[in-house]
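Lecture notes, structural biology module. Today: joint structure prediction for complexes of four components.
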Amino acid sequence: MTDWNAMDDEDFRQDVRRFFEQKYPEQLRYPLQRLRWAEIKGWYLTLAEKGWLAPNWPVEYGGMGLSPAKFLIFLEEQERWGVARTPDMGMTMVGPLLIKHGTDEQKAYYLPRILRGEHIWCQGYSEPNAGSDLASLKTSAIIDGDEFVINGQKTWTTLAQDATHIFMLVRTDPQSRKKQEGISFLLVDCASPGITVRPIANIAGHEEFCEVFFDNVRVPKENIVGEINQGWSIAKAMLSFERITLGSPKQSQYALGRLELLAHQRGILEDPVFLDKFTALQLDVADLASAYARFADVVRRGEALGPDVSLLKIWATETYARISNLMVEAAGAAGAMGGKIDFGAAQIDVLGNFYYARPAPIYGGTNEIQRNIIAKNVLGLPS
Amino acid sequence: MTDWNAMDDEDFRQDVRRFFEQKYPEQLRYPLQRLRWAEIKGWYLTLAEKGWLAPNWPVEYGGMGLSPAKFLIFLEEQERWGVARTPDMGMTMVGPLLIKHGTDEQKAYYLPRILRGEHIWCQGYSEPNAGSDLASLKTSAIIDGDEFVINGQKTWTTLAQDATHIFMLVRTDPQSRKKQEGISFLLVDCASPGITVRPIANIAGHEEFCEVFFDNVRVPKENIVGEINQGWSIAKAMLSFERITLGSPKQSQYALGRLELLAHQRGILEDPVFLDKFTALQLDVADLASAYARFADVVRRGEALGPDVSLLKIWATETYARISNLMVEAAGAAGAMGGKIDFGAAQIDVLGNFYYARPAPIYGGTNEIQRNIIAKNVLGLPS
Amino acid sequence: MNMNTMNESHVDRDDERRLLKDSVRAFVERTGGASRARALRRCSPGFDRSVWREFADLGWLAVTLPEAYGGLNLSLAEMAIIAEGLGGAVAPEPVIEAVSLAAGVLSHAGGPLAEAILPQVIAGTLIPALAWQESTGSYSPDAVATKVQTDSQGGLSLHGVKAFVPYAEASDGFVVSATDACGLVLFWVPASAAGVTLTHHRLATGASVGRVTFDHVPVTEDNRVASADTAARALGLAIEEATVLASAALVGLMSRVLDITVEYLKVRVQFGRPIGSFQALQHRAVDLYIQRELSNAALADAIKELSANGNSSSAHGAVSRAKARCSDAALLICREAVQMHGAIGFTDEYDLGLYLNRALVYSAWLGNSDHHRRRYATYWKDRAQGVAA
Amino acid sequence: MNMNTMNESHVDRDDERRLLKDSVRAFVERTGGASRARALRRCSPGFDRSVWREFADLGWLAVTLPEAYGGLNLSLAEMAIIAEGLGGAVAPEPVIEAVSLAAGVLSHAGGPLAEAILPQVIAGTLIPALAWQESTGSYSPDAVATKVQTDSQGGLSLHGVKAFVPYAEASDGFVVSATDACGLVLFWVPASAAGVTLTHHRLATGASVGRVTFDHVPVTEDNRVASADTAARALGLAIEEATVLASAALVGLMSRVLDITVEYLKVRVQFGRPIGSFQALQHRAVDLYIQRELSNAALADAIKELSANGNSSSAHGAVSRAKARCSDAALLICREAVQMHGAIGFTDEYDLGLYLNRALVYSAWLGNSDHHRRRYATYWKDRAQGVAA
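The predicted structure, tokenised, for the full assembly:
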């Protein structure tokens, strides 16, 4: 078995790059939307076969066991080549969760099934009245004999229609004094009776989110992760790494490249007014990439990220939105046309970028929440 | 005596315009800062002699008795010609206040002295800890026999060093339940023992503001205006007209003209990038002028202005600030030079505009307060 | 209110306009507002022909057309009220596109074709489209590659490709701009003419926009709407008017989006408080409100200027000012509305997406804010030079 | 820390830099920070010569100069630490202007004049100034109208007017750019030379900036610093370095202003609450913080690129990126700081004005953000063409 961490960084990068370039399907590069299971399944299984599905899991659980530094290289190459996200909640969330907090039985049962592509997980956090204020969630799980009985509703569950399992936060103690207490972490089979999944189309016409309804869904007691009523602190600890991936400059860099191509095709790249706006965005992206690299160094050194990492998510998503706005403007009369549009030799999906830039400042903790975090935990401003 | 209101609007406008053009000192046109008494006294007395000091006071009190429509024409011509504000608190605030709420004795004593240029008034509202939160003012006035005894401090008092009198809000009932209650309106002679005036220089180097200290200052009881502890509602009612004058487009129009001249002299008026920014500001100013005209129509019809007038102050002051920012940028290497700078044939005070644009969003109720007003009283958003 | 009776009444103009506004609002409420747009999108022809007939009955298709053709000869201000009201309900019927723009060109050009076609437009039985832009997307009426060719027998034919023709698939005929040896000409070509082919593209709203190919389409002098200066004037004025009406539609839709958003801020509770009590959101909402008010002001000026001074450079300036402000404001308000709603604002089943898409369409149509800022600068430079000269 | 001992120590580079940072901070705290700037402004020469000598003793005037001239031969990164620290205290001494820019040109050019002058600069006994810009304000080193003329006897003289020379009144001599028959040349002219006259203008900070007239100033070959490519390279590189250091000073001052403002938001109470608890102000403060962090990131890249790649187009790109970001961010943060303070922020006795003025000076100096965005675009286009070729 290869000890990846022993490899020279550059050699490792070349290996990863070669694999992506050779094996990743060309037509799936840089998708604007999340791909459905039917589209991405082949790639998922290719990764599984290679043993590369779970780069940052320890080797003993079937992962690559990459150090933070190597894992970042892996992610960078993935983004560089425009490799789509798989339904990766099993790898990014459930695996690390179980490795840290799971019982031996849970690990033995679930982890291999994730790596075989047998279990596809989705995340049941948000509820209709618990969005930014996630801790106010109401979906209840009441112990009845050897089982929890779940009632309630989750929403904005990404690709639940493709998932076989859902890991979710539920309220197990409705009497708790603080809303953050009394929340537990449950693993649930989506085939359980009483679960209904309703896809929600977004404004781009894709069914990326779902509502998931729970009507007396019975789940074995041993499906709890960690202690009862301790789910909130577990969930919170898992969010830290997400904040740096949401702040990656790659999306903006890719969009900037499309914008450049569009402007070139329309003959306005040399137009001084356009060029000035474009240059300002180039600088925004370059500075983002540079700030990102500084945080990535922290991860690479194996240190914990501070609350200041929230600035990446704010700047990355708002920069992407500005780029997509300029793309609409630069398209001129074609700026309202849906789908891929012919600009001379190039086909560009102007509105696709515009639409996908919309939710970016919302998901993963809205930018308002991120600003609150910096105001309180970095600047020390009072509540 | 001329019945101005009977005149045709255009004839009236021509009369006013002619007077300003003939009599107003050329070197005092469009001053960036407020003029000191020594500079503006001559013009003040010219206006007094003409009987035009108090355009909107009723004729019986020595004013011109202009209707709202005619008064707006008067103001428009004043702004068009760049006529400076005189120390006009006597005319704009004290006069209307006394005419509405004053005793016969107060009217008989004060009004003629204002019109003769004998009494120059300043406004004592703000305190070090009562800025945006004006109603939390603490300067106390305690009745002792036939007098009030004032102790405390006012600040940001414009041109107090030139004033003979100050009209001020004081706390006469420290026990009142709500902070807005227990406030009274007093007229005070600045020559009273115990008053100290300390001018404060601003970042442009001018002493426009003062601190005014009150140390056992004794004021006759009859110097109160209105009922005791009713000062807040009187003061509030007086602010409504201020909000439209603070929203006038004239300052921005003038600054835009200077910016155009600067750009012309520097040869960048045809530069597409500059021109694009300049055009955006032209549109901002044109739309401001148009919105202003809609509110002016309300005044002209003699109707009360709603809370939506706050939008003018926000947009006017922030547009002026943006123009002054672009002026600094357009000046290039000369953008950090103080005072008037030679740009070919023209002399332009780049930083003067930049400095004077700074406090504009602050005074007359900060733009944050104005936004709160619109949020609550126009959009009906909850507290 | 049926507008056909409007001329005869003796109420004053303000009251008339208030009644018209109420009438549009009543229609919108009765017919279900945005839900109608939702039901009709991505279908062909993308709007409701029975509603179109209702518009005809209400007189809305006749507002600005001259009495000579059976029109009401009312002003642009009345038409703007209709555009704003329909914009607020994202009504999909191409009133501005077919009536104000395409029929507007015929009306300004006058002549036998106007006499023949406009009464049918007013009756709602014929829907015209204007085919003027080429695939470069230029907004200059002079940038015409489409040609009228004369064959050896003196027969005429029209040859070229027109792009960005809204609702081309629903149109009964096209007013086509082209050039012949003498300059700009306008021809009327029935959609069914030989050599006319359409390809469609979907706009953000789901409505179709056509690319119309005229492949040596035979025409006669009877098809000629106008030539040279008359053609340029008619085309230019109708485009200005349609631009103002698109601005009015944008004002209508941004107002509705602002209302929806403010309402959501009041009722949506997070952290135990309505989110509209959070000051950061309040101030953002206020900034949107200010943009709406500025849009209103700019629109009113454009209506006034264009009504008073026709195809003048000061009118062009005012029109560009309005279109630039309204386009930017509508897009800003829609984008911010999505942000302030959170995830629900991004769902297809919530109405915001319909408004956002309409804002995209009308802000791009007839020139986006970038285009109109540049045009304003040209107008301003011309004026400055005129003053200097 | 006395930097003269720095080369000899064995602590690693990061520790060295931390020590240097502490040393600058200690100096600033000991000498009263912004109050010193307040006391010295609008006086001549606008800074403290005894502090200048102290800088010399600390080795701060020797940091980037080569050991051959008695310098420490440390990197731009060390100098940036000093610039950032002094910027945070609005220290008025012209370290960047005289040492990094003017002496920097001499150092990069080398030769007998460098040998003669630089040791005096390092000792703090001679203050040079660079006179390179003309009154047009162009930032192109080639845009030179000043000429070296040869009279009939072969005698040389310098003729022209140089503008925007910071601290000219305090300078002992000028490095002057001019052209002769062969192109760009650099001459050293003592301030006392016949034919040299100064006029002053006050900058926003109160410091003076000079316009230096060279009226047929006789020079000899001994005055020649460099010619042609050597001159262009020395001038170009020193300007890039000074631009990065001005960016570092801007980072220092914006950080201090952000600190002052955040502190004020915590202690200023209105409506019974610290104003820093109002969410609208919190979010504005966060946006300023983000700009500061981006400035930090851009600055670090520029230091790295310029140190690694010298006078290359990728270094130019990184330098322009840093100067554009830092200039905009510093001005934004200062302007917003004034707004968030309310009236007190506009008073002369509060320190903010000192920082705002310094931000104005350093953001305009060596090209404002508009200039550097345009230069970045040029760099990027060149690179894109290079890639295509």
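Point to remember: The interface with chain C takes residues 278-280, 282-283 of chain D (CB under 8 Å).
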